[in-house]
Design brief:
The strands form two sheets. A six-stranded mixed sheet has the order 1-3-2-4-6-5, with helices on both faces. The protein starts with 6 loop residues before the first helix and ends with a strand. Helix 1 runs antiparallel to helix 2, helix 10 packs across helix 12 and helix 10 packs across helix 13. By secondary structure, the chain is α/β, with parallel strands linked by helices. The chain is globular, with a radius of gyration of 22 Å. 38% of the residues lie in helices and 11% in strands.
């Protein structure tokens, strides 16, 4: 974790970040910078450092915010033409918590439109380029293009961290939108448990699955950020009232055996994924073997009988909730409106949604409307039952032999 003890450290880091944001604009990680806000926060952090105190472990660290998290008086577009000129009147709880803790907000990052995608190719601001790619040319989706995708939908945040433009970044994760780009770009990606972090100020994709996560270059930084943004929030009824034990303190140890002493790691026995290459499957198993051989973790085979049903279950529930959430985007009260006043309501909705929303969003809305209709609702009802079964599978695993061990799958 980058710890800036003195005012000069904070200033030099900020200047380096600004330089990289300018030099690496071709990566298209940021849709807008907030340098004016950042400079004010920088001066306040430097002032504190000179007097020898910090507000928190992230005081003086720079961060970026995914463009579906609301920021007061700063445009929040969800990378959609429909919200290109939308400026919120309030700030998301997680962003406010970080700013109150001394972190410096550098800008808003690119994403798949409304969080729908896993490549970050579907944005009104253009695709995000992976910093590890051998080619940064943009020729569209071309199988002959040697450019590799950043992953999505939080690709901008992942690239901003991986390329050194910021110390950490916020993203949102519904079905992998933090974990996928973190993997593709080589960063730490933390997806918290639903209810641990307030979603107030997050423009939703699927409300029953959305979570706000963290990108960083170290687990300690991610844990420090998580300590700040987690906890109950009166503005979000889905947050959990519970005593929060700081995670970062437990990571500040030099003895790995001490760190893993009370953890039991479960290896899924029935986790057979046809699309998983032999290379990554062997890598996954070798890591399990190393943990087992270290003698500090008990690795045991566990079973999730409904694991294979997870993806279709997610797709049905997510599309249904997307269709419901997207119904407010009509262009009447806010957002894209290319019709004027002298049109029927039906024509206004049709034209605004056709021009303001992208093809992936159209597809999700159509599928979701079917799953919620009379003819397709049995798919949605079945998906809800399967989700409960998946939950029960995890509860069964965690309820076994947990007296003195923390169990992780």
């Amino acid at each position: 974790m980058a710890v800036y003890r003195g005012s000069s450290d904070v200033l030099l880091n900020f200047q380096a970040n600004i330089r990289l944001m300018t030099e690496l604009k071709h990566l298209n990680a940021f849709v807008r910078d907030t340098v004016s806000v950042a400079e004010k926060e920088l001066s306040e952090s430097v002032y504190r450092k000179k007097r020898g105190y910090n507000l928190s472990d992230v005081d003086g660290l720079t961060f970026a915010v995914k463009d579906n998290l609301c920021t007061k008086d700063i445009k929040t577009t969800c990378s959609s033409e429909f919200l290109r000129n939308y400026t919120p009147s309030y700030t998301a709880s997680v962003v406010q918590s970080l700013q109150s803790s001394g972190a410096i907000m550098m800008g808003k990052t690119n994403m798949d439109e409304f969080g729908m995608g896993s490549t970050n190719l579907y944005s009104c601001h253009g695709p995000v380029r992976n910093p590890w790619s051998s080619s940064h040319s943009v020729t569209g989706i071309d199988s002959n293009d040697d450019r590799v995708v950043s992953g999505g939908s939080s690709g901008g945040s992942a690239v901003a961290v991986a390329s050194g433009m910021v110390d950490f970044a916020l993203g949102s994760d519904t079905g992998g939108s933090v974990r996928i780009p973190a993997s593709f770009c080589g960063t730490v990606g933390l997806k918290p448990t639903y209810g641990r972090v307030s979603r107030y100020g997050l423009i939703p994709l699927a409300g029953s699955m959305d979570t706000i996560g963290v990108f960083s270059l170290s687990t300690l930084t991610a844990a420090s950020v998580f300590d700040i943004i987690s906890g109950w929030d009166m503005k979000d009824s889905t947050t959990i009232r519970m005593k929060h034990k700081p995670c970062s303190k437990g990571l500040q140890v030099h003895d790995v055996k001490q760190l893993l002493a009370d953890i039991k790691i479960g290896v899924l026995r029935d986790c057979t994924i046809p699309q998983l290459s032999l290379h990554y499957k062997s890598l996954w198993l070798s890591i399990a073997d190393k943990l087992s051989n270290a003698g500090t973790a008990l690795v045991s085979d566990v079973s999730l009988p409904h694991f294979k049903s997870g993806v279709p279950c997610y797709n049905v529930i997510c599309d249904a909730e997307v269709a419901s959430n997207m119904s407010k985007y009509s262009g009447v009260q806010f957002g894209y409106n290319d019709c004027g006043d002298m049109v029927t309501a039906e024509k206004l909705f049709t034209i605004n949604r056709m021009k303001g929303l992208g093809p992936v969003v159209h597809h999700r809305i159509i599928a979701g409307m079917y799953f919620l209709s009379y003819h397709g609702r049995h798919y949605y009802e079945q998906a809800l039952r399967v989700r409960q079964q998946i939950y029960n599978d995890f509860q069964t695993i965690f309820s076994k032999n947990h007296k003195n061990k923390k169990e992780t799958v």
